[in-house]
Amino acid sequence: MKTLIKNMLTETQMDRLRDARLLFKESGTARFATSAQTSGMKIASSARSLTTAYYSLLSRKFQREERAVLLGLAKYHAELQENDANVFLMRRNVHRIEKGLSMRPRRPVFAKEYILETVNVYRKVVDEPDRSDETTGDSLRWSYDVLSEYFRVVAEDPVLDHARKVFEDCPAPFPKDEQTARVPYKRDLDDHPVSYEQLEKLAIKRRSVRWFDQKPVPRELLDKAFTIAGLSPSACNRQPFRFLVFDDPKMIETVSSLPGGTIGWKHQIPVMIAIIGSLDAFYSEKDRHVIYIDGALAAMSFSYALETLGLSSCICNWPDIESHEKRGAKVLGLAGYERPVMFLAVGYPEPDAMVAYSQKRPLEVMRTYNPPINTT
Ligand SMILES: Cc1cc2nc3c(=O)[nH]c(=O)nc-3n(C[C@H](O)[C@H](O)[C@H](O)COP(=O)(O)O)c2cc1C
Fold first, then answer.
1. Who is most buried in 176, 231, 281, 287, counting CB within 10 A?
2. Best mutation site among 204, 289, 317 for ligand 1, i.e. most ligand atoms within 8 A of its Cβ?
3. What SS3 string covers 218-233?
């Protein structure tokens, strides 16, 4: 509809229409409509059942997200039963085993509830790595090392013994190497790679940069920054995201128009990145927010890494707007269970361009020690 009107009217007519719309917002009629809407929201939010009715009958704003979550769950659970191996599941369980191995005191029998599930998914990845979405052997090597260590230390138990047999019947994917085994270890606490002052300087220097030098960004630098992003924490070490990187000018033209927040500066973005979250990493709806949390943590590490390499970035928001979602999924070829978490514009900062001051909130407002809690 918007595009139709845009095509029919001249620039000046469009400007007048925009002005009229803005002024209408100040009118009594518009204020009445807004207050009626607010009252509706107040009523709908006053009870759970009314909220459900509101989002089922009056607003469908959550519908597409619900479908994406359900498609992810369906894929996850189908893979448990079928031959495809869900590497997210493998990583989660191996992570839980690592926690068990590091537990103080360590229990002689642990991970009993999920060890069979773990060795089964491990076996599927060993048998058919191509069907597991895992192109590098890193997760497999880690799983192999951790499971080897697990079966070395746990006590005898019928369930564990059965799992041990499944594990030992699998051909070892790598030669065993005690020296480089990827298992829980003690960190070197005497090593302080970065001082607080250095990190503070970096945090102050990083600002959202929207104006870039028109020179290519070497992929080696981007890959260095992605390496740092990949070291970020993620819930149960599932790492349920991937980065789609566009440095081809024609493709950037299309991709930079997907998020709305690039208007006015998208024409000079040298690299555009989409962070895509995978909802098939989770067995339950309760984890539906994790793609955004994990994706954002990786994005933050990525931005800092870029700054250390002389590059800058600006995050571009991906609000849940149905028309954007449809177009984004089509352009990027996303599966129904995948969602953009955010986009990032990246490039060398243009030396004369300004950045916003962006005042941060004071420490005293941002944090509270021991706020009152209710222990009853
Ligand atoms: C989730 C998120 C979405 C953002 N979306 C946009 C956007 O669409 N367009 C834009 O110009 N800036 C965007 N930004 C940048 C913010 O405006 C910026 O981070 C904020 O004003 C603070 O400035 P600073 O990053 O320089 O500290 C976004 C930032 C975040 C974290």
1. 281
2. 317
3. CHHHHHHHHHHHCCCC
